[in-house]
Write a structure and sequence with these properties.
Blueprint lengths: L7 H8 L3 E6 L1 H8 L5 H5 L9 E4 L5 E4 L5 E4 L13 H13 L9 E5 L2 E5 L14 H4 L14 H12 L12 E9 L5 H17 L14 E9 L5 H15 L4 E6 L17 H7 L1 H8 L8 H5 L1 H11 L23 H4 L3 H4 L19 H37 L2 H12 L26 H14 L3 H17 L3 H17 L9 H14 L3 H17 L3 H10 L6 H16 L6 H17 L3 H15 L5 H17 L3 H13 L6 H21 L11 E2 L5 E4 L11 E2 L11 H18 L14 E2 L10 E3 L4 E8 L6 E14 L12 E2 L5 H10 E3 L2 E6 L4 E10 L3 E14 L17 E7 L11 H5 L12 E3 L5 E6 L4 E3 L2 E11 L5 E8 L5 E2 L24 E3 L8 E6 L9 E3 L6 E2 L4 E9 L5 E12 L9 E13 L2 E9 L14 E9 L7 E13 L2 E8 L6 E3 L4 E10 L11 E8 L3 E3 L6 H24 L6 H20 L1 E16 L2 E15 L4 E2 L34 E6 ...
Parallel strand pairs: 1-4, 1-7, 7-8, 8-9, 14-23, 25-35, 48-56
Antiparallel strand pairs: 2-3, 5-6, 10-15, 11-13, 11-15, 12-24, 15-20, 16-17, 16-19, 16-21, 18-20, 21-22, 21-23, 24-26, 26-33, 26-45, 27-31, 27-32, 27-34, 28-33, 29-43, 30-42, 34-35, 36-37, 36-46, 37-41, 38-40, 38-42, 38-44, 39-41, 44-45, 47-49, 49-53, 50-52, 50-55, 51-53, 54-56
Helix pairs in contact: 4-6, 4-10, 4-12, 15-17, 17-18, 18-19, 19-20, 20-21, 21-22, 22-23, 23-24, 24-25, 25-26, 26-27, 27-28
């Protein structure tokens, strides 16, 4: 309950004070009217006695009366019957009192803290939002230090004071009856004594004639106090003194008084400042007099109007033009969405709500203008004299008289009366309840009834603060009334008994709250007197609150709410809400709920400002707690009330909250919210001349804003396929972005002599929340800037946006300063000249219509075209908002409401990433800048477009296809430095100038033309064609390729077309291949140093051929002479693994070429026929070639030359050293070497090694390297094939090449890329073991020496003549390394291999059986051996065991190994000559 200025004791004492009537003569009224006051009004500021008064009780005990106040009123007669309800005039007056008492604007508000709530109690409390806690116990925990911290509600105090002072007099109690009457006569009367006599007779007539029901008098013998009023400024003072002396003789000195006043003259003392104590009393204390005046028959039209409660309420609500005042309306029911309940219908009531409260009836002049401070003292002294010498003695005397009467009647009369009631069925009713009363108002006591005398004595004791005696009398009267079933009288006695018990000093007994509950129930339910019930509830609630019983007080106040008075119900509900907030455990939800109910009743009572305040205070609890329906209702009501009160800005803010939050309302209700908001918003912007205000709808996800700089990608033109580049339709991938950045770094380094420029910044033509936005992006003048804004419609109704465009600010480059304080140009202005000026700087594209469906999220792409260089800031969007028409019509067929369209804007404010670098950044929440919407406009820059012609989407593995690429300069600036980088550099080639074949340049003339350079070969040529080629003749082997355009530059508007050879990937599947084109402008020093253009293709690779190759040393003698090396045999296994997916019928192996610096293919052994090899599906072919070492170079500078040897299997030879065959060979070789280098670097970076382990490993590596070098072949095979495909009944010829790299003799190689296998898990060793002994790889030492056997292939011998055939055999030993090697040749060794056992081996070596020699580096030695045969047959001569070891190792048997088992058989045929 709200905090009061007065204490509870003072409140109760001031509610029941002695009543004094005033009767004045005409001239006496004229004297007081000079001060714009009546005599009663003149006395009101001085009616509180500052000094103590004294009386003696019937027991002659002295009682002190402190702080006594009396009430002085004019006598107004009325013959009407009193009613149990307030009259319409009183209701209007109370309504005006509450309406006139409002919270002060800008006053410091009281605040209650509970948990995470900070509730502010003022007229503008729209705050309090904090994180939600899971437990309400923690949330509602009391935090504030004060025990009872409440907010003041002066409107309730004013209502309560006026209500208690306007209580009508009743017959069942005497508290509001007059105890005395002041008879006032002016000293200017001719015979003042006669006037006193007339006034005395008039008072007697009014009291005893029975004509009037009002006013009511306390006792028959009313105290008459005679006052002679003397006007000092105009009257005769001597006459006044003489009349006063006569009065004292007639009425005694205690019954009369001479009051002198009007001592001040206006002209002489006009500038004197005299206080005006009457102003605060006149406005609030003239209610009773007005009610009494209205009770006069001439002022009342009919008694029905006085008692019609509903009519009074309707009148009260109609004064402010409020909404419908239906009693069945629920406070949480939203208003109707029809036109009758809309704000448009309330527009007419707007002026009514702004009416000020009714002014007082005071005159234009001030009060007490003729009174001086001495006059004030005179009046105060008069009241003191009247009270102490007249009123208190009169009350004391009546108390004694009543006590004596009661004591004298206590014997026979009372006993007889009680016995009579018992005989005739009378009995006592229970004290604490009311059960089946016989009658409510039928029983009336005569004035001399002893029950009334007891009540009268109790009231007198109560008025003079003798609460103990009063309680005793009330308690006695209560029993008598209950026994008589006089419920109204009993309720009154219960009420005052409870109050007397509370006011007793020292609290001898507890406050009997059940007395008050019984009294309220009786007043309300039995007697139907809501006025008395309300008085009882107000007093009891204050008493309970003072005792800390806020729950009981709230319950009591809530019970008093009813439908007969909205104002009373609203005030009591508000006080009940304050009780909930003042409990030990604050009940915030109940507080908010009852504030909502109070606001609803305030609204029905026409108190719009109080209703708005209640809803605002309740909003503090509901806001931010996910109670969306409650928030919507409160915000909607706040919006309506604010608009009605002429506060459209607050109404806009309230409606905005409804639309911004995720609402759970139905679509119909949301549509009503939107229409109300648009109507209010339109009324606001029609009054203001400021810039465009902010709109809440639709929601904009600023962080999802994407920006694209440049023209959008051109679509395909016919057969031309444009480069994909960057599009807003693509999803951002951080891995792809890093890949593009790496490619751009490679291009920038290639353009800057291999070094990345220090100020290098990757190009960003597409910005979003995941890109680096810490720097200002760069845009080019006359190139569009596309901003993609994400709009979300949170409502279930469609939204229609029109004239949607971007808002921007622009600062010219010449006006830019470091502090950005230059002059800005913006397009927010509404004047035509401003708009044209903005178009000259930046052209803004406008979307005429943009429709958002219910709960739809949609992107809008807005464009700007800058025309000048400088700084551009994109600040927001501007648009016209309207609720999309849904076609709803009313019952009469007409449209419900016209479409409301308002214009506004929304800012694009993007929060940058959180900083987490320094300690301060980690301690506090700091965000960096996000500058994606603040581009710098730079001068014109070259712009290139790339188109591809005949670019395939599917290729066979290794297939060669020729396409064309077109470069177009679409800008007005020359471009140069054209380069391209790719993630797959072995996929394409532009060819080289020296090796490019003469092929058609036009794509249209390239049908059925081979991509290779071919030469017709004459029949019979079986040897290989050799060509020496340098790798430098081809394009540089790197990821960056210079594009060979004519002259290296492209002029504005110029285009060029270049051939582009493509080779299918070696592995099947879908391959993503990325190209990044790089170009520059000739002008250096510009902000944009270069530009890039992206292109991504997806190639589907299908199986073609599988090539497996191996090499072994040949042991047979060469054909060229006995002194030549036998060379190496190369075996190629080709298999058709195509699954006919591409319609391939068969493959033809047309040529096998080799490329190496050391070896070459010399001759084709198989197939022997000079035709190509055909392979159908799943067929396999075996090819065999002889390879020989290359001729030594003629000059020392030709070391890097590669020998290309071509062995064609058909009639045409393909020049493998020319483009594109040679290009793809070198690029694939470079890619393979790059992968090997990366793998080896990854292995070597695995960590530090043990020193002893490292030494042993290094030694083994040296020997292994030496052995490997001896057996290194480094022969690259190129298998060229053709495939025949049937497509659309046409036969097409496909060409391709596969590469196989033979690195070592005896090791198989394949054309298929090996798949990466998962690495096996190994056991971790936390402590290294001892290093193993350094054991050299002896198993490979035999490869240090190469052996060849020279012998005749056949030998014919006549065994009949000579049984022994001896054949000479030459064994050639070659040291393959650059160190000395010890060699042992053992002829006694017999092979046991399975292959040798199949051949007859019954021969023997004759002569020396073991040779030991030492071969110098690269030395070749020949040994002459003799083989002895005893019978014809086929013999394997490769039986000698050759042992090899390094000379520095020693002849250790453990380190030697034979190579006989590894050699291929050397067969000789021994024939028998029968002749």
């Amino acid at each position: 309950m709200a905090q009061c200025v007065q204490s509870v004791q003072e409140l109760v004492q001031d509610s029941f004070v002695p009543m004094v009537a005033v009767l004045c003569s005409g001239q006496a009224e004229a004297v007081t009217r000079r001060n714009n006051l009546t005599f009663a009004q003149l006395l009101r500021p001085f009616c509180r006695i500052t000094s103590e008064g004294h009386i003696r009780d019937p027991n002659n005990q002295l009682q002190v009366v402190k702080n006594l106040r009396i009430c002085v009123n004019n006598v107004v007669t009325s013959a009407s019957t009193p009613s149990g309800n307030l009259s319409p005039a009183r209701r209007r007056r109370l309504n005006e009192v509450v309406l006139s008492c409002q919270p002060q604007e800008g006053a410091v508000s009281a605040t209650v803290t509970a948990g995470d709530y900070d509730l502010s109690f003022n007229d503008h409390c729209l705050k309090a939002s904090a994180p939600w806690y899971s437990a309400w116990r923690d949330t509602l925990e009391e935090v504030c230090t004060s025990k009872h911290f409440t907010a003041t509600t002066p409107w309730f105090e004013a209502y309560r004071e006026n209500f208690l002072q306007s209580m009508p007099a009743s017959d069942h109690e005497f508290l509001n009856h007059y105890l005395a009457c002041l008879l006032v006569v002016s000293s200017s009367e001719t015979v003042p004594v006669e006037q006193f006599l007339k006034l005395s007779q008039e008072q007697h007539r009014i009291q005893h004639s029975g004509e009037y029901t009002k006013p009511k008098w306390f006792i028959p013998n009313t105290l008459k106090y005679y006052v002679l009023l003397h006007d000092v400024s105009e009257g005769d003072e001597q006459k006044a003194d003489s009349v006063y002396e006569d009065m004292k003789q007639r009425y005694g000195p205690q019954g009369c008084y001479l009051l002198k006043m009007n001592s001040r003259t206006l002209p002489a003392e006009q500038n004197e400042q005299i206080p005006d104590p009457w102003s605060q009393y006149l406005h609030r204390n003239d209610l009773q007099s007005q009610d009494q005046l209205e009770d006069v028959p001439s002022a009342v039209s009919s008694s029905a109007d006085e008692n019609d409660v509903s009519a009074a309420e309707d009148h009260g609500s109609a004064e402010t033009g409020g909404e419908a005042n239906r009693l069945e309306d629920h406070p949480l029911q939203l208003d109707s969405v029809s036109s009758s309940g809309s704000l448009q219908a309330l527009g007419a009531a707007h002026a009514e709500a702004k009416k000020p409260a009714r002014e007082t009836d005071s005159a234009s002049g001030g009060h007490g203008a003729c009174l001086t401070l001495n006059d004030h003292d005179h009046i105060r002294q008069f009241i003191q004299e009247f009270t102490s010498r007249g009123l208190l003695p009169h009350i004391e005397k009546n108390i004694r008289q009543l006590n004596d009467q009661l004591v004298s009647r206590k014997g026979l009369s009372r006993s007889l009366f009680t016995a009579t009631k018992k005989w005739f069925g009378g009995g006592k009713a229970p004290e604490k309840g009311v059960s089946e009363p016989k009658s409510t108002l039928g029983l009336l006591y005569p004035p001399e009834a002893p029950e009334l005398q007891i009540r009268k004595m109790a009231d007198l004791c109560f008025l003079v603060q003798h609460y103990e005696l009063a309680y005793s009398c009330y308690h006695t009267a209560k029993k008598d009334f209950l026994s008589d079933q006089a419920m109204l009288y009993a309720a009154g006695a219960l009420e005052m008994a409870a109050v007397s018990a509370f006011l007793q000093a020292g609290a001898p007994r507890p406050y009997p709250a059940h007395y008050m509950d019984t009294a309220i129930q009786t007043y309300r339910d039995v007697c139907r007197n809501m006025v008395l019930a309300e008085r009882c509830a107000l007093l009891s609630a204050e008493i309970l609150k003072s005792q800390g019983k806020y729950s009981e007080a709230a319950t009591l106040l809530i019970k008093m709410t009813s439908e007969d008075s909205d104002l009373r119900s609203a005030l009591l509900l508000e006080q009940a809400a304050h009780c909930f907030i003042n409990m030990r455990t604050r009940m915030l939800r109940k507080f908010a709920f009852h504030m909502i109910l109070a606001g609803h009743r305030f609204s029905k009572a026409g108190q719009k400002r109080h209703a708005l305040r209640c809803y605002c205070q309740a909003m503090q609890v509901y806001k931010g707690r996910s109670w969306s329906l409650a928030e919507d209702h409160i915000n909607f009501t706040i919006g309506r009330q604010s608009f009605t009160l002429g506060q459209p800005e607050k109404a806009v803010a309230a409606f905005k909250q409804i639309l911004v939050n995720d609402s759970r309302q139905t679509a119909t209700q949301q549509g009503a919210f939107l229409r109300e908001y648009l109507y209010v918003y339109k009324s606001v912007i029609s009054r203001s001349e400021v810039n465009l205000p902010q709109l809440p709808l639709p929601c904009i996800h600023s962080s999802a804003t994407r920006v694209y700089f440049g023209h959008e990608r051109r679509l395909a033109e016919g057969e031309k396929q444009a480069a994909t580049h960057v599009s807003l339709d693509q999803e951002y991938d951080p891995d792809l972005a890093a890949m593009w950045c790496k490619l751009e770094e490679q291009l920038a380094a290639a353009a800057n002599r291999g070094v990345v420029p220090p100020n290098f910044q990757p190009s960003q033509c597409y910005l979003n929340s995941q890109t680096d936005n810490l720097h200002h992006p760069l845009a080019v003048v006359e190139e569009p800037i596309i901003v993609e804004v994400m709009f979300r419609n949170p409502l279930k109704v469609p939204l229609s946006l029109s004239c949607l465009s971007l808002l921007w600010r622009f600062q010219h480059e010449s006006e830019r300063t470091e502090d950005s304080s230059g002059e800005f140009i913006t397009n927010e202005g509404t004047l035509a000249q401003e708009a044209s000026q903005g178009d000259n700087v930046v052209t803004t594209e406008t979307i005429p219509d943009f429709h958002l469906g219910p709960e739809e999220t949609k992107m809008a792409r807005l464009r700007l075209l800058p025309h000048r260089t400088g700084q551009l800031n994109i600040v927001g969007v501007v648009y016209d908002l309207a609720a999309a028409s849904s076609g709803d019509t009313a019952a009469d067929g007409h449209q419900k409401s016209e479409v409301m369209v308002v214009r506004g804007k929304q800012d694009l404010k993007i929060q940058g990433p959180r900083l987490n670098q320094t300690k301060e950044d980690k301690m506090f929440v700091r965000h960096g800048p996000d500058l994606r919407l603040d581009p710098i406009i730079t001068p014109p820059m070259a712009l290139m477009e790339v188109f591809f012609l005949q670019f395939p989407t599917a290729l066979l593995c290794g297939e060669i296809r020729k396409a064309y690429v077109e470069f177009c300069n679409v800008s007005g600036v020359t471009l140069c430095g054209l380069r391209v980088a790719s993630t797959h550099p072995d996929f394409f080639t532009f060819g080289s100038q020296a090796t490019t074949p003469v092929t058609p340049l036009s794509p249209n003339s390239a049908e059925n033309c081979s991509a290779y350079k071919t030469i017709a070969t004459p029949p019979g040529s079986s040897g290989a064609s050799e060509t020496l080629v340098s790798a430098e003749d081809f394009s540089p082997l790197s990821n960056v390729v210079d594009i060979p355009i004519n002259g290296g530059i492209l002029h504005p508007g110029e285009s060029t077309q270049l051939p582009l050879w493509l080779r299918g990937p070696d592995q099947e599947g879908v391959h993503e291949i990325n190209f990044l084109f790089y170009y520059e402008s000739p002008e250096k020093g510009t902000k944009i140093s270069h530009r890039v253009l992206r292109h991504t293709v997806f190639i589907c690779g299908s199986r073609s051929l599988s090539v497996q190759a191996s090499a072994c040393c040949s042991s047979v003698p060469p054909q060229r002479g006995p002194d030549e090396d036998g060379g190496t045999l190369v075996f190629i296994d080709v298999e058709n693994i195509n699954t006919s997916e591409a319609g391939v019928r068969e493959f033809h192996i047309v040529q096998v070429s080799s490329s190496s610096q050391r070896w070459r293919l010399h001759k084709c052994i198989n197939p022997a026929k000079e035709n190509d090899c055909k392979l159908s599906s799943r067929e396999r072919a075996k090819l065999c070639f002889r390879a020989t070492p290359c001729q030594p170079p003629a000059t020392s500078d030709a070391v890097k030359l590669f020998t290309f040897a071509d062995l064609n299997l058909g009639n045409e030879r393909i020049v493998s050293s020319a483009t594109p065959c040679g290009d793809f060979f070198f690029r694939c070789r470079w890619s393979s070497e790059s992968r090997q280098v990366e793998a080896s670097s990854a292995r070597t970076s695995s960590g530090a090694r043990n020193s002893s382990l490292a030494a042993a490993e290094d030694k083994r590596c040296d020997v292994a390297h030496m052995v490997k070098k001896c057996n290194e072949l480094d022969l690259n095979l190129i298998v060229i094939w053709k495939a025949y495909v049937v497509e659309d009944n046409k036969q097409l010829i496909l060409e391709g090449q596969l590469h196989v790299a033979l690195q070592t003799v005896g090791k198989e190689a394949t054309s298929l890329t090996p798949k990466e296998e998962a690495q096996e898990m190994v056991l971790l060793k936390f402590k290294s073991d001892l290093p193993p002994p350094a054991v050299l790889p002896s198993a490979e030492l035999y490869r240090l020496v190469k052996t060849n056997m020279h012998y005749p292939e056949t030998c014919t011998h006549a065994f009949k003549h000579n049984s022994i055939c001896v054949v000479p055999v030459s064994l050639v030993l070659s040291n393959c390394c650059w160190t000395q090697v010890d060699v042992v040749v053992d002829l006694r060794h017999k092979t046991i291999s399975s292959e040798a056992s199949e051949v007859h081996s019954a021969f023997t070596w004759v002569g020396q059986s073991r040779y030991t020699l030492q071969l110098s580096p690269r030395q070749v030695t020949r040994l002459t051996l003799r083989a002895c045969f005893v019978q014809p047959g086929v013999y394997n001569l490769n039986t000698p065991r050759v042992l090899a070891n390094l000379a520095e190792q020693g002849a250790s048997e453990t380190s030697q190994q034979s190579r006989a088992a590894e050699q291929s058989p050397a067969l000789i045929i021994i024939n028998n000559d029968s002749a």
